[in-house]
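Hi, here's the filled form for the chain we discussed.

Project: internal
Contact: R.S.
Residues: 278
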Amino acid sequence: MKKWSFALLSLMLIAVLAACGNNKDSDSGADNEAGAPRTVELKVGASPTPHAEILESIKPELEAQGIRLQVVTFNDYVQPNQQLADKQLDANFFQHQPYLDTENKERGFNLVTVTPVHVEPFAGYSKKIKSLDELQDGAKVAIPNDPSNGGRALLLLAKEGIITLKDNTNIASTIQDITANPKNLDIIELDAAMMPRQLDEADLVFINANYALEANLNPEKDSLLIEDLQGNPYANILVAREDNKDADAIKKLAAALNSEAVKTFIKERYQGAVEPAF
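And the returned structure, exactly as it came back:
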């Protein structure tokens, strides 16, 4: 009887050990089957339009490569870089190189360009006048208050001969660099995200294309003055950190953003309001 009980206990122990072994195999999931790759999570910050829309368009392609793309949208130009620097994001896509250079210098970031993706023409709009000839003495003009985009607005005004700057080619120009203002324009500086709201207040408002598109404005059709796209130095860029810019997932994201599919998506969806930069 004791021998039988011992044998029975031995069989039960073997069965339990076998079951544990089987459970361990099942917990390993698909990663252990035929060398299937693990899914990599990639968290990217973006402005809602057009950046997030472009990123959403490449999700299926990246999913097929084992990358699950999470797009986090921001309505400001401050948090995407801060969160990337703090490693809450893996990359961001919302800015141009001059803006990134200013951010790195003034805020001590070490963020790097991965690849240019598209160009958004910066432009001036108005609900109060139909042409620049109607701009009256003392007219109110709203420009973004960040250095690079504020400089873009001033350069456009200088190009049209409305003001004169110390250097009409200097992107870092500020209102202190205005040497002539014959129309005595009242130039106010506000956060870029607030620009569309100024259309009911100011006579001329300079709006970044992403905010213009969100306000149902087409830079090509609705603006009074606009940057040239040829040779435009303000291509919007995919940005990462120095420590992850060469990661395989970031490289695949960059390749997807520079694909023919994205070029077609941009041209068909935005009809000239946004243009590929590759």
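Let me know if anything looks off before we file it.
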